[in-house]
Amino acid sequence: MDLRGQYLAERVFMIAQPLALVLSYMAGYLASDTRLVLIAYAAISAISLLVCVPSWPMYRRHPLQFVPQPPSSEHE
Amino acid sequence: MHSVMARMNQMSSSVLVMGALLLVAVAMSSQWLAREPQLRVAFRRAQVVERGAGMRHRRAGSAQPQKQLVVEFDLEADFTQAWHWNVKNVYVSVVASYNTTQLAPEGAQRRASSTVVTSNGATSDDSHVVVEHHMVLWDRVISSQDEARIFSSDLRSKYSPRHSDGSMVPLDRPMTLHVEYMIFPVVGAFTFGSSALHAFVLNAEES
Lengths: 76, 207
Hints:
Chain B: It comes from Porphyridium purpureum (Red alga). Chain B: This is Signal peptidase complex subunit 3. Chain B: Keywords: Endoplasmic reticulum, Membrane, Signal, Signal-anchor, Transmembrane, Transmembrane helix. Chain B: Belongs to the SPCS3 family. The complex is a heterodimer. The longest helix of chain A has 29 residues, at 3-31. Chain A is built from two helices and no strands. Chain A has one domain (3-59). Chain A is 63% helix and 0% strand. By secondary structure, chain B is an alpha+beta fold. Chain B is built from three helices and ten strands; from the N terminus they run αβαββαβββββββ. Chain B has helices spanning 4-33, 55-59, 108-111, and strands spanning 38-51, 66-78, 87-103, 116-117, 128-142, 149-156, 174-185, 191-194, 198-201, 205-206. In chain B, strand 7 and strand 8 (191-194) form a beta hairpin. At the A-B interface, helix 1 and helix 2 of A face helix 1 of B.
């Protein structure tokens, strides 16, 4: 994962987590079921971990460009 | 965040912390969702019945039938308003209470002066201590909102009120009945409560 990919992964996770919190709480409250809160939160968190933890190709679009190696001095 | 392990470590700990916050939010919701249940209990009659000796007494060799006090009462307990998403069970019990007096132990007068009753003209040698007795007559565990209404007349006590030494409670004493409840939440703190006291005199009939 390149530097931009790390930034993107962290951002996606930081948006997904509060969303998981609010959505699972609302789902449980509307259904009057506390177990649903935990199931929904676990499901959304598992999906967000699956999206953010592995080094998917979308996180490797900007690899570091290294400076080309200077020509060797053996010809001098 | 540079490696899979570093991301896994940081993000999973964040998931756990947020999960704990979610449980705190669920527990706190009980504070504003909780409503007082409607409770009322009224004494109807009491009678002393003779029943066969229990297994314990049979083994001990005394198969004498035992006198048991049966109390009948009306109970109205409505927990439908108090029931919300964070309630798992409600334990309801009907409790009988009465006071007796007994001789104060040595030195108890000075330590607990508020509980010492002295009869008219009595010297400090015959001071008595008021002892409160609370006995559960009947109880039930409510585990769903469908069964959260108990409107029953002529309920009989499930447990025969007795002292810890096995002796019968005094049959001519003023008593009170009240309903106690304990709400078990899915997440959070237990809630306790009780109804108003219903005073009566036992006056049990022998049968």
